[in-house]
């Protein structure tokens, strides 16, 4: 009956529950409250309940690349170009953009990385005069400005960047480095589904 009730929980929650209950049973045994050493066995994985990872379809964002007229449009195209999160964008400075080589240079926690920028973005963005005002704002402000321009979230736009890079043939390690990730785990699903 106990194991049957656990089946409705996620595998991680099941494991935590069994572990906690086994620790309690061990405590009771060592305190001589119960006479037999009891232990609950692990729950077998139910393959039917395995969560399927959904990868969104790649979309056409060419309409985003018109003359930049709003902060939201700049943010949307910046995320599509670089895969940066709003919290990373908050820490940018206009001097991080190298328009001569169409690169965005980022120095985060002592690690440097250079993200190439497509020419269609560079020619529209480099004429902006006051981007440092935008970069100094909070994540909530950036999310609000993005929402004024598009229904796509920052996360969805970042996924589009990832999918474009996978389609272009970048390796999982190159993409992990471009995004500033410490591991490749979060990228594996894209490489399994798109390649």
Offer a concise description of the structure.
This protein has ten helices and three strands. The chain is mainly alpha-helical and 195 residues long.
Features:
mainly alpha, hpI Integrase, Chain A, 3 strands, 7% strand, three-stranded antiparallel β-sheet, 195 residues
What can you see in these coordinates?
Helix 3 (71-82) crosses helix 7 and helix 3 (71-82) packs parallel to helix 8 (154-167). The chain is 48% helix and 7% strand. The mean pLDDT is 86. Strands 1-2-3 form a 3-stranded antiparallel sheet, with no helix packed on it. The chain folds into 2 domains: 2-49, no CATH class; 62-194, Orthogonal Bundle (hpI Integrase, Chain A), CATH 1.10.443. By secondary structure, it is mainly alpha-helical. It has 10 helices and 3 strands; from the N terminus they run ααααβββαααααα. The longest helix is centred in the N-terminal third of the chain and has 20 residues, at 11-30.
SSE layout and pairing:
Blueprint: H1 2-6, H2 11-30, H3 71-82, H4 86-90, E1 97-98, E2 103-108, E3 111-116, H5 119-125, H6 131-135, H7 139-149, H8 154-167, H9 172-179, H10 188-194
Antiparallel strand pairs: 1-2, 2-3
Helix pairs in contact: 3-7, 3-8
């Amino acid at each position: 009956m106990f194991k049957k009730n656990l089946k409705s929980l996620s595998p991680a929650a099941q494991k935590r529950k069994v572990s906690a209950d086994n620790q309690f049973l061990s405590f009771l045994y060592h305190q001589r409250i119960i006479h037999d050493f009891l232990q609950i066995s692990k729950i077998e994985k139910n393959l039917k309940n395995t969560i399927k990872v959904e990868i969104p379809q790649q979309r056409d964002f060419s309409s985003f690349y018109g003359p930049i007229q709003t902060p939201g449009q700049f943010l949307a195209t910046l995320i599509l170009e670089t895969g940066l999160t709003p919290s990373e964008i908050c820490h940018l400075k206009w001097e991080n953009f190298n328009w001569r080589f169409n690169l965005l240079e980022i120095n985060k926690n002592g690690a440097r990385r250079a993200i190439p920028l497509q020419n269609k973005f560079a020619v529209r963005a480099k004429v902006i005069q006051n981007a440092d005002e935008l970069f100094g704002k909070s994540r909530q402000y950036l999310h609000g400005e993005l929402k004024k321009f598009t229904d796509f979230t920052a996360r969805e736009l970042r996924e589009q960047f990832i999918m474009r890079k996978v389609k272009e043939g970048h390796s999982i390690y190159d993409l992990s480095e471009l995004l500033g990730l410490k591991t490749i785990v979060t990228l594996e699903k894209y490489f399994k589904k798109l390649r």
